[in-house]
Amino acid sequence: MQALYFYNTLTRQKELFRPIEAGKIGIYSCGPTVYAYAHIGNMRAYVFADILRRVCEVAGYDVKHVMNITDVGHLVSDADDGEDKMEVGKKREGLDAWGVAEKYTEAFFSHSSKIHVKRPHIVCKATDHTVEQIDMIKKLEEGGYIYVIEDGVYFDTSKFDDYGSMAKLDIEGLQSGARVDDIGKKNKTDFALWKFSPKDELRDMEWDSPWGRGFPGWHIECSAMASKYLGDQIDIHTGGIDHIQVHHTNEIAQSECASGEKPFVNTWLHCEFLSLDKDIKMSKSKGDVLTIDALEEKGYNPLAYRYLLLTSHYRNPLKFSYDSLEAAERALNKVTQHILDLREHADSNVVLSDKAVEHQKQFMEAVCSDLNTARGLAELHAVISDTEISDAEKYALIEEFDIVLGFDFADMEKNKEEIPAEILSLVLARDKARDDKNWSESDRLRDAISDKGYVLKDTAGGAVVTKA
Ligand code: AMP
Ligand code: ZN
Question: Which domains are assigned to the chain?
Answer without folding.
Answer: 5-144+156-176+217-271 (3.40.50.620), 276-416 (1.20.120), 417-468 (no CATH)
